[in-house]
Design a protein that fits this description.
This protein has 9 helices and 21 strands. The strands form 6 sheets. The protein has an 8-stranded mixed sheet with strand order 8-9-11-12-13-14-15-16. A 3-stranded antiparallel sheet has the order 1-6-5, with no helix packed on it. A 3-stranded antiparallel sheet has the order 2-3-4, with no helix packed on it.
Length: 343
Amino acid sequence: MHEALFYHAGEDKQVSCNLCSHRCRIKPGKRGICGVRENRDGTLYSLVYGRLVAENADPIEKKPLFHFLPGSFSYSISTVGCNFRCLHCQNFTISQYPHDHDGQVTGTHRSPEEVADAAARTGCRSISYTYVEPTIFYEFARDCAVLAHERGMKNVFVSNGYMTPEVTRDLAPLLDAINIDIKAYSDDFYKKVCKARLQPVLDSVRLMHELGVWVEVTTLVIPGWNDSEQELREIARFIKGVDAGMPWHVTAFRPTYKMTDRPSTPVETLKKARKIGIEEGLQYVFEGNVPGHGGENTFCPSCQAEIITRFGFSISDIKMTDGRCSSCGTIISGVWQGEQKPF
């Protein structure tokens, strides 16, 4: 066990957890919504510090981050647990593990040093905290992130965006990039599908951007839930209001977990979403989970030249020089160190 950050004790040994926007009030012997932070006699503990259930060297494009060190690999780690209860979670076997196994917590013990060593050994240029909501293993992620920066590596969160503003401000100096899900643009969706709220997510997107973290946004487009033109336009307008150069990934849903009553997302729906994003003024909109249709490539917003050619998580060509379009010289938003050497 490891004492948690971002909590304070109250009366009768009850504690208030301020890690995420649920702000759970936890009685002695009980846990927060995430299932992995427990009040023991008035002290809040993380039950998953260094207990990893996933360790992989992934293409950074898998996060997905398309405008951050393209062609590089990121050492990706996760524990069990999550502060959302999404009906369509593709990683439910680990995100919901404590809830589905009578509170059990599993994982292989790792130290921050071991994670940083593994990242360096596998040639990764960053460490990604991913697969479940990484905020729930914040203490371990933070310690790894400090070591990563000391060793010249970057840090990446793949997140639902539900961390509190105080956590965002603590994390931002250590974080280089984040992909945040905007799962829908209605509280009704968040309440029914995720057991959460929309506004904290929007606030996190804005604040991360304001604090200088590279932000990309993903929306999993689910037939009948969030695929209407109005909702897609609302998401696009919100992103445009933050930064027109912020990439938006509109990705295809596949039936899974407790949402098997919906069909997979048609390619035509993703093409419609991409068109809407561009109409609303976004410069970079990508179709995800449907490789080979051309919607995963980066185009110059000025001359429309194809800047980065992708197929799935692989890059076959990059036509930029010092972060500029090779055809017209327009600055392409992103983090591009070494962009001329995809692999």
